[in-house]
Amino acid sequence: MSVEIIFKIATIGILITVICQILKKSDRDDIATLVSLAGLIIVLTLVMGMIADLFDSIKTIFNLY
Prior knowledge:
0% strand, single chain, mainly alpha, elongated
């Protein structure tokens, strides 16, 4: 696992936070909620790929089929 993925997740988190704060200040709370949900989905897709790689590594280490 490289450090790049941690920086990607942190960057997405910072961007989503800034966008949500701007939207909340302009009384767009509903859109801010949707933006934060979209950010969560983006991060979860990144993490799911890493978890799939982890399970593949475990299968090869223990010779599981």
